[in-house]
Amino acid sequence: MKSTTENKLEKVAGNGLLGRRAFFQKGIVWLGASAAGVSMAATTGDAAPPWMKTPGAPLRGYGQPSPHTEATQRQLLQPYGTMAPGSGASVTPLQDLNGIITPNGLHFERSHNGVPAIDPEQHELFIHGLVGQPLKISYNDLLRYPTVTRTCFIECSGNGLFNANLADEPMQMPVGHLHGLMSTSEWTGVPLSLLLDEAGIEAGAAWLLAEGADPVAMSRSIPVSKAMDDAMIALYQNGEPVRPEQGYPMRLLLPGFEGNMQVKWLRRIKVTDRPTYTKDETSKYSDHLADGSSNLFSFTMGVKSAITRPALPYRMQGKGFYEITGLAWSGHGAVTRVEVSADGGTSWADAELSSPALSMSPVRFRSPWQWDGSPSVLMSRAHDNKGNVQMSRADWSVKYAAGHLYHNNSIQAWAIATDGEIKNVWS
Ligand SMILES: Nc1nc2c(c(=O)[nH]1)N[C@H]1C(S)=C(S)[C@@H](COP(=O)(O)O)O[C@H]1N2
Ligand SMILES: [Mo]
User: Fold this and answer.
1) Which atom of ligand 1 is the closest one to the Cα of 252?
2) Do the bridges between strand 349-350 and strand 413-416 make them parallel or antiparallel, or are there none, so unpaired?
3) Which residues sit with their C-beta closer than 6 Å to ligand 1?
4) Where do the domains of the chain lie, and which CATH numbers do they carry?
5) Separation of CA 313 from chain center
6) What is the pLDDT of residues 290-348, one digit of tens each?
7) Rounded CA separation 49/73 (Å)
8) pTM here?
């Protein structure tokens, strides 16, 4: 960067963090890539690139990513190998994405026993229990109900478990592997309250049992208050029918709640007066605290952020200007502020946030940074509109019992070495 430019840049925190105004300031030379001496004639005629000299590819019915981005894939985690290849998870490659929306083919998947091959013509949703009129609704009938649209994230309560206490040392893995059990879509579907009103909830109804049509019939208990508030039977994901991995033909969407409760391949809702205590909510998904007690249910996903670039699996390409960017989200509401540090938390600066800041939807944060090539530690810290602040990893580890893995929304740090190597570090 030229020294004249450097004078214009406002340093807002230690180790080269620049003010957000730098993004809008005129006359800044970010990389200084120069076109001097190149004549436009060289880009046409014989000197034109080969793809300008033959007709382009034919039209096709369903678009695919460029073959040059084929490496942008979900990473598969299959703990039981070929014995149960549909049991496990695949993570969103956050390192290769920008913006807030996850493309449908890259939405993370967590399935307990694979994707059922549901015939939509035969699939039905039952609503029964403490209702005046039990309902049996076919997929085609559900498509005729009034719909709503909202953008929100789904996050597995196991997201971040690789940065909990699985090993004595921080694990070195791509940012998608560390934080990619979180994806964001624009969901469209039928408000659950509408269907419950139609069935007529009876006095004493306080909970729902939601059950999936997969071979494990995964099921969870959900408070009626959430169902009547903002729950949705999702039918469309980013505009197209929900993908098989996400629950085709329909899934339960509970904005801000842990992913496990958002039952895929939804087939049954039973209205009850108490939680059902299903196998899926008693064998897993409880939070064990340091004092020996447990939170049986902890529905809302905490406020969290993660730097997705610079991050593993990549390395720095020499000193100079970088945009530090990542995602911040909260199950309690909207993210209002994200701070970034380049000196391991000694000093912080507010990052630029993408708009709009929607409730239970991530924001993309961005901070300009001038790396002088010295060892640095990058961190981000998110705040939401309900007053929640992301806690340090040290504070998180003492809150929960040793070995606890769920709901790790603590701050994660990337150390950058002089040779450009990036490492996950605990601080
Ligand atoms: N029927 C059913 N619903 C399910 C699951 C499942 O295995 N079966 N997995 C749950 C878990 S643990 C999570 S985190 C989310 C993941 O949603 P996704 O696969 O669409 O990302 O779905 C939940 N709903
Ligand atoms: Mo999950």
Assistant:
1) 24
2) unpaired
3) 107-112, 154, 156, 212, 214, 218, 245-246, 259-260, 262-265
4) 124-276 (3.90.420.10), 304-425 (2.60.40.650)
5) 18
6) 888 888 899 999 999 999 999 999 999 999 999 999 999 999 999 999 999 999 999 99
7) 29
8) 0.95
